[in-house]
Amino acid sequence: xxxxxxxxxxxxxxxMSDDERDAIQKLMDKRGKKASFIMREAFALxxxxxxLTRVSH
Length: 57
Description:
Elements: H1 18-31, H2 35-56
């Protein structure tokens, strides 16, 4: 029986240019974080900004 207390892991893949990948790599190197962490952080910032703009309109 599966342990339902564990969070489900979802994988999302994206296509990006070499320049975008290089920018992500620079952030990874500078911060010592994995790409998944950088992308989750970027999404959180995007979502916060998006929700703020929805409230103000």
